[in-house]
Each structure stands twice: as C-alpha cells, then as structure tokens.
Amino acid sequence: VTDAGAGRLVAPAVAIVSVALVLDGAELLALGWGWGLSLVSMCSGLALIATAPPSRALFVGALARFADTERALWRLRARRS
Amino acid sequence: VVTRTRLRRRTENRLVAGVAGGIADRLNASVGFVRVVIVIASIWALPWVVAAYVAGALLIPPRGSDRPDWDNLIGLSRLAVLFGVPLLGPVYGVILNEPFRGPLGWWIAFYGLLVAGGVALLSTDYRRERPRTREEARAVVLAAAPVAASLLALAGLMLIAPGVQWEGFAPIVALVGAATLIVAARRPSPGAFLAPAVLAVAVSALVVAADTRLQGGLGARDVTPGPSGDEPIVARRAIGNLSLDLTRVTRGGRDATVEASVGVGTLRISVPRRVRLELDASVGKGRIDPYVFTGADGRQGFDQRVRRSGQPPRTGSAIPTLRVRADVGLGEIDVSSGAVSLVEVDS
Q1: What is the DSSP code (8-state) at residue A28?
Q2: What pLDDT, on a 0 to 100 scale, did the predictor assign at position B6?
Q3: pLDDT band at B216, cuts 50/70/90?
Q4: CA spacing 20 to 30 A to B39: which of B97, B171, B223, B236?
Q5: Residues B9 and B49: beta-carbon distance below 8 Å
Q6: ipTM score of complex
Q7: Which of A46-60, B182-196, B314-328 has maximum average pLDDT?
Q8: B201 and A19: CB-CB below 8 Å?
C-alpha cells in the first residue's frame, strides 16, 4: 500500500462522496443509480490505484496478489525432483 | 520423501484465516483441492462448514506459534462481511432468460463492484509472508471499528424505534468512514483505513440510490390482516422478508387499500381469489413477479415499476376492489393468488 496515495487521493474523494450522500439523505439532492454507482466506482478505483503493486507488470489490481510466490514455485520444483 | 507437518494454520498465501492451507500442508495435499472440497461441502451444509471453519480458525494455532493471534480475528471478520453481503440474496439474484432492464453500464458497475470487492476482501492477505505484528493488527482493528460501530448503532436504532424512517441517517456511516480516513491520513500508515471507508460509502450509496425505506424493524415477519374499514392497511419492514397474506382483508365484500414496503428483502403478497386487484409495485434494484396476472412477465433491474389492474375471468356479481401499493428498495416483490390468475382490465 502506498500510504501517501491513500491520504492524498482516496480520503478527499471519499469525503466529497460522503457529503453528497448525506445531502441525498437530507433530500437536498437526488443521486439515483447513475450517480450512485459512478461515485462508488470512482472511490473503489482510486483505492485500487492506491493499493496496487508498484511494478507495472503486477499492475492488475488485487488479482495480482494471486500470482505464484517464490516459495510456491520452490515447493513445486522440490516435489518434481 | 513424504514429510508431514503438525496441524498449523498458514500465515502466508492464505485467503481467509489459513485453515484450508493448514489442512493441505498437514495432509501433504494441494490447497486448491482442499478449497474445492470446502466449497462443495458448503453447497449441502453451509452453516456447518462456516461453523467448522470458524472453530478451526480459533482453535488451530498459526504456524510458528502455540497461541491464537489477532490475525485470525481479522480474517474471520472479513469472512463475516463476505457472508453478510450475499444475505441480501434477492438483490443479487437474476434470471438469465429474462430481459435485463436498466442501462448496461449500471449492471456492469453493480456486479463488477461486487466481484471486485469480494476478490479484494479475500486476497488482502494472500501474499503475506509473516503474521501481523501486534501494532499492525491493532491498526486494522482500529480502522474498521468506527464504521462497524456506526453500522451496528444504525441496526440497533432500527430495532428500538421501528416507526422512524432511518434511511436518511444511513449516509452518516459513509461520513464516519471518510472522517476516520481523513484523520488517519496523518498517521504513518493509513492504508488499513481504506477498505472500511470505501465499504461504508458503497453501503450508503446502495441505500440512497435504491430509495430504500428503512422503516418497520429488522427480521422476517408474517402478517395476516383482517378487514380494516376505510383505514389503509400498512405493513413495513426495514431489513428482512415480509409475507403479507391479504386473503381476509376483503371479507364481507368490502374494498381495501394496502401499503406495504420492505427496505432490503423480499415482499410476498397473497391476494384473495375473488377480487379486483389494482397493483402498483416498484423496486429500486431487484425483481417484481406479478404472476397473479395471466401472461405476466417478471421484471428485473434498476428502478422497476409495475402498474396493473385485473380481475378473475367470468366474474358474475360485483366483487370488492383491493388496491395494493408495494415498495421494495433492494430485493423482490412476489404477488400470487392461489390457483386463480387475474385477467387484465383497464384501470
């Protein structure tokens, strides 16, 4: 996790979206599905960018975490021999 | 050479609490095989599998230790979120051979976010090579506590005061998550605060976007009202399934008006056989099954509404009129009437 990204990118975005949702709760705004899904997607996307691995090769978001580790490969080689 | 290790939960390359990995290491088997066995067993006996997994996570010590640690509590809370979200079953249930109503982008965003959230929750610890230190674990618990507490407080208020419309207060959960994240941004490692804040925003946005009415308490409820004169019959549930048996409301040939709403859950309505039905049903996201009408199709999607009137075929004498206004935020509306189907008439 790049902690600076979490503070700089995601925190303001989440704060703005929360204020919009509170205004909707107070019936001063009517967001509906279009805005609701867009705002949540934006927050999730920023969180994904902030937590993505630093290397471009691993930049496929959270799925990259399922990649084989050095240890798993070592175990596989040991079993074959 | 086959080597067997002691039964210890994995602290690295794990999805939830490392129980499957620990069993696989003990049996010298593939962890994928153990996970598939767990998934297949869940199809038959989900509660037992979850209970066994929780017991395993609490009782089996992590590798390199003989004592329980913070990590398994964190893994189990994540499991609770993952099992808690599908409890909203009807919201996510779709019928593949019926039209998907609403913009394609909304469908992709809704289910894409759901899958991405599940994968992110499951894979958070997968590449972890060592257990969390006490300080790291404390940061994770501290990060989730305000959002979890505000969600629990909202649920408690819905139970204590079922007459109040609580949906206006749901965005406060998002505000709590955002405030925690802003305060945490000054800390040395605010990363742990991201997931609770984004989850809180997602939950609040769901409630807001679907125009969910959170009124009437929590849990499943069966209601069988009798005739009520000129007063409309009102039945509501904030979260939970509501079964409304209206077969008695038109006794004595009197007209009746019914207002029913469910915030999150399924609303099942049974109407009398000999009645002229005027139905006005709407869902924020989910399905409406007005199968009481002959030849009616189900509607699934976002912001769906069905307005129909009907009566039994070959009606001789005058029959009472039943007006039903049904409203569900996230979930399903199911309207049935014994064996008789109503033929549509102009309202």
Answers
A1: S
A2: 84
A3: very high
A4: B97
A5: no
A6: 0.82
A7: B314-328
A8: no
Burial of B187 (0-12, 13-18, 19+ CB in 10 A): middle
Distance, CA of B122 to CA of B16 (rounded, Å): 6
The DSSP output letter for A7 is I
Residue whose entry in the numeric block shows the structure tokens 């939830």: B16
- Give contacts of B 265-324 with A, CB under 8 A: 284-285, 302-303
Q: Are A65 and B127 in contact (CB under 8 A)?
A: yes
| Unique residue bearing structure tokens 């899904």 | A37
Beta carbons of A33 and B185 less than 8 Å apart:
no
Q: What is the largest CA-CA distance in chain B?
A: 87
Nearest to B137 by CA among B73, B199, B88, B62: B73
Helix ranges (H only) for A9-69 are 11-25, 32-51
Helix H, strand E, coil C: the string for chain B is CCCCCCCCECCCCCCCCCHHHHHHHHHCCCHHHHHHHHHHHHHHHHHHHHHHHHHHHHHCCECCCCCCCHHHHHHHHHHHHHHHHHHHHHHHCCCCCCCEECCHHHHHHHHHHHHHHHHHHHHCCCCCCCCCCHHHHHHHHHHHHHHHHHHHHHHHHHHHCCCCCCHHHCHHHHHHHHHHHHHHCCCCCHHHHHHHHHHHHHHHHHHHHCCCCCCCCECCEEECCCCCCCCCEEEEEEECCEEEECCCCCHHHCCEEEEEEEEEEEEEEECCCCCEEEEEEEEEEEEEECCCECCCCCEEEEEEEEEEEEECCCCCCCCCEEEEEEEEEEEEEEEECCCCCEEECCC
What's residue A1's pLDDT?
46
